[in-house]
Amino acid sequence: MQLLTTTALFVLTAIAEIVGCYLPYLWIKEKAPVWVLLPAALSLCAFVWLLTLHPTASGRVYAAYGGVYVTVAIAWLWLVDGVRPSAWDAAGVALCLAGMAVIMVGAAQR
Predict the structure, then answer these.
(1) For a tag site, which of 11, 19, 60, 95 has the least CB within 10 Å?
(2) Helix/strand/coil (H, E, C) string of the chain?
(3) With 80 as the cut, is the pLDDT of residue 57 above it?
């Protein structure tokens, strides 16, 4: 159950980070209105806060989070940017998730 909760928290954290970075991108590159920077800042604050909710050492959290971040970023590529992921993207996601699993299982063994 803790693995599922931790993974869900990682996914929320990744979404908060991506939204916090995507909105300024829209402002700079796509000429979105300047007000999009306010929800971007709030989203990045949520990202930082969500990282503090993990019960293990921060370095381990950041390392394991990286695997989920890559996965969510590729899902974002497909769902928001409309670009279908390639087999290489899928292989990269699988490798990242395997790395995350090794880190998290190892942490649980301590």
Answers:
(1) 95
(2) CHHHHHHHHHHHHHHHHHHHHHHHHHHHHCCCCHHHHHHHHHHHHHHHHHHCCCCCCHHHHHHHHHHHHHHHHHHHHHHCCCCCCCHHHHHHHHHHHHHHHHHHHHHHCC
(3) no
Using alpha carbons, select from 76, 59, 63 the residue that is nearest to residue 16: 76
Q: What is the pLDDT of residue 51?
A: 84
3-state SS string over 65-82? HHHHHHHHHHHHHHHCCC
Could you tell me which residues come within 8 angstroms of residue 105 by beta carbon, excluding any fewer than 6 positions away?
none
- Measured CA to CA, the distance from residue 72 to residue 74 in angstroms comes to 5
Mean pLDDT of 7-31: 93
Work out the angle between the directed axes of helices 2-29 and 58-79 (0-180°, nearest 10).
Answer: 60
Phi, psi of 56 (to 5 degrees): -115, 175
